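Marked as duplicate of an earlier ticket. Keeping the data here for the record.
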Amino acid sequence: MQIVERSTLAETLWPAQAAPGWLRNVLLAIGGSLLLTLSAKINVPFYPVPMTMQTFAVLLIGAAFGWRLGAATVLFYLAQGALGLPVFAGTPEKGIGLAYMMGPTGGYLIGFVIAAALVGWLVQRGWDRSFIWLAAAMFIGHVVISAYGVAWLGSSIGLVQAWTLGVVPFPYANVFKTLLAAACMRAGWSIANFRG
């Protein structure tokens, strides 16, 4: 049985007729990487620890762009970081380039790519047509990011300590970012349906 991929929010709001598909994808990837950079620099006071908005941006990009362009956008962002551009949280103060990427947050960065692809894949199968299913897809994306982050961090400080530092402080922040990203997607679809 063949699974049909649905149009993404980005494709619906910016149809291929409006610009060549490759140009639209390049511009969306650039815009998405800028959003990721900005989200990494935002430090929101939150209980029990401050949070950045990176996972919000990753989930939103995956959901809005679909799995291929979502993953490609995050890879483009990571490539900028690998080249030494200060696009990550805490850069340049905490280092730049591959040295930063191989540090404690390296697993989360890998998880970003997988999560964007997975959320995009689920959305292209209709998970964004309901707020509850969309939030579930984004929750799964957060689980993926956390799993890669804890596994990476655990290889150097142990899994229990990695869980304590990398997951325990963030459940409320992750719920907030999941619901915010899902609400943004639903608002985007409302705009798309209104225009249509």
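See parent ticket for discussion. The chain has one domain: 16-195.
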